[in-house]
Sequence to fold (663 residues):
Amino acid sequence: MRRVIVYAILSVLIAGCGGIQMLSGPTKEDLYTERFLMNVGAIKEKYRQGRDVEALRELLAMNEDGLMPSEQAMRRNFIGAIYFSKSQFEKAIVHFDTALGRSVLDKELTARIQLNLASSYYKLGNMDKTFSTLMLIDNGKMVEGDSQKFYLLWYKVAKELGRDKDEVRSLIGYLTPVKTLQKLKGEQYFNYLMGSYFKLDQRSRLRLLEHFDESILCVSYLAYLEVEKLYYSGKKNDAKDYLKWVSDRSESYPEIVALADNFSSKMGNYSMIDTNSIGIVIPLQKRRATYGRRALTGIDSAVKEIIAAGGKTYQLLVEDSMGSGSVGALKVKKLIEQHHVSAIIGGLFPDEAIKEYLEAKKHGTMFISLSEVHLPREEKDHLLIEIPGSVESQINSIFSDKMLNFLGKKAAIVYPKGNLGESYVSEFWRKANLHGVEVNGVINYDPKQTQYGKEIKNLLGLHFTRERQEELDIQKNVHSLERSRVRRVNNLTPQLDFDWVFVPAYPNDALQLLPTFKYYDAYPINIVGGPSWRSKKLLAESNQLGRLYFVGDEVSSNEKIFAKKFKSRYGRNPRLIEVRSYDSFSIIQSILGDKNFTSRDELDIYIRGQEHFQALTGRWNQQDGIWMKDMTPIRLRRRKFEKVFDGQGELLGAEPVKTEAQE
Fold:
């Protein structure tokens, strides 16, 4: 908090002493002479240079008798600010109080002085006076920077005094400038707002939201969350009425309007549900047909085991996506509207998964995706389960405390262009901000390329030689004295100002990208990937590629038992597609097996109320309305896949290689 208050005071010196922009009433020329502003500007410059004693002496020596009231107020505010920076808060308060008596004509300066006065009371621990002073401030007269500091101080004091509604009002004020949902959810103070807001009773929450007349994104989103809360608590009529209010108030925020429209469709979906009918949408033609048939085999294996164990019989309705997301979405719509299926298994490939899931979401239908769904976090909900582990699940595992302690807190990311890369980099930034990880490199690449030298040179600081010209000249002179006939790729050494780099690339792309690090002498280096790195191709080359890690599924004894049964039944070993397809139906069975839901709403509410699902390849936990899969950190070493940690979270094997950033 000290940092916040000091910064608030310093901003007064920089912004408040260099000139005044009047909102109404007297002009700057009416309140301040040019000579006074020049004198104060010169003193301000000395203060900026660290000559605070000299600056204070000149201000104290300035004769007030010849100054106009607003000039006297500015002088006193400046003196108070310097005393504040020296932790002489009582002296600062005396000058701020005097300044307030003379600043009445300059509304902006008055607001700043009041903020400084409140800050001084806060530093002295007088919360009541801090709060009462803050409540006198006309926030409409403050510049945006001061306004944000005002809201932060208000929040801190409200929290100290236990004023729950003021906590919410102050945080809404602080978050008002945020205009996109993605940025809002990435703000740490939005998490505080959620906590403070939902501490209030429902009536207080609704009245508080209706208090804000202007259109504010965080207010609209809180109102939308309120609609969900009303609906899932059984108050459907109230939810419908309030949803209309949300839509009317959120016209300037398309993201909120889209959320409201989707939820309206869900509430209006009164179609029957057949809990014995399951829809399957997979490609069954052309080059993807082989994968589709393998997925069906995995599902068939799960169904036969359920029947053998005395479980109920399901009607499986299979539709061909023809390898197209658009066609797949139409088939999803058909299965829901014509056959009333209770769940859809689909999304065998990421490009199909997005459109198929979004169609299922419109109808409020559970969607089990056989691949990752590359959409922003805010577009997912509790009716989506991603069997391989979502992007959010992977990043969550990488940014766990034990992994950050293992790898370090300086990172970089090299990601592919397109939906896949955007999903990763968005969640990567969000988690980095939450965990205090310093991101020192963000590079994208075109996966259609086969050479990535330019991108990796940029990451390693080898491309911008102008900034490193002196170092380059020295290195060239040294190398010119060498008698080696070896051709040098580059004279400069790479700048590894990160402890590790995240490369969410598929194996074929990774095999093109990763050798480039070694080519430019960045070797060995800690590189982290995703679940697809459990690849024989990548494993075969791992000794030549550096220190490789990825997050994936932990192979359990149950999976080995399943493989044995599968081979006995089908005459071959199961591969990844069969295992994931088996899991998809296992999860459906765990939800529908002994239940008899009479409506889609009932099933929706039931799923929302579950904390976790367990299947062959792992466990899914519900966090903030989406399903996150527990994933295991794995290293590729000596052409083997090895766990990084044991069951108790203790490190197995060697520490990662130290980088320049760590040293």
Summary: The chain is about 55% helix and 10% strand. The longest strand covers residues 274-282.
